[in-house]
Amino acid sequence: MLYAVFCYNQEDVTNAWTKEQDEKVMHDLLAVQSKYAEAGRLGPVARLMPTTAATTLRHSHSETIVIDGPFAETKEQLLGFYVIDCASLDDALEFARDLSSANPAAGSYEIRPLAIYKPSELAS
């Protein structure tokens, strides 16, 4: 089963890292990712740009509004995500624990099973 692992943290914390601190965290996370990639279990990985680069489209009844910034103000922001192929939720939790061990910032990881939607296959 495919799982999405969403990485949340306080943007002001991670944005305050020096270039060297950021490179160290990315290096340590790459070590975790490599283990799963070599086993053919790691799908797309994305690191999101800061919420200051976000644009939100809101639609309510007949009105559509485009605004700068994220959809909601929260303490933690979505910083990125992984897609991983795991036999069970326990395996996905192990991956998230490995990520957490590699990342010194206190954040959280949300794990959700994925349902794949391929519009091109529906048109056939």
Automatic annotation (TrEMBL):
Coiled-coil stretches: none
Alphabetized Pfam families for the sequence: YCII (PF03795)
Domain of life: Bacteria
InterPro entries on file: Dimeric_a/b-barrel, YCII
Signal peptide extent: none
Domain annotation YCII-related: ranges: 1-114
Family statement: Belongs to the YciI family.
Name under which the protein is recorded: YciI family protein
Species whose genome carries this gene: Ensifer adhaerens
Phylogenetic placement of the source organism: Bacteria, Pseudomonadati, Pseudomonadota, Alphaproteobacteria, Hyphomicrobiales
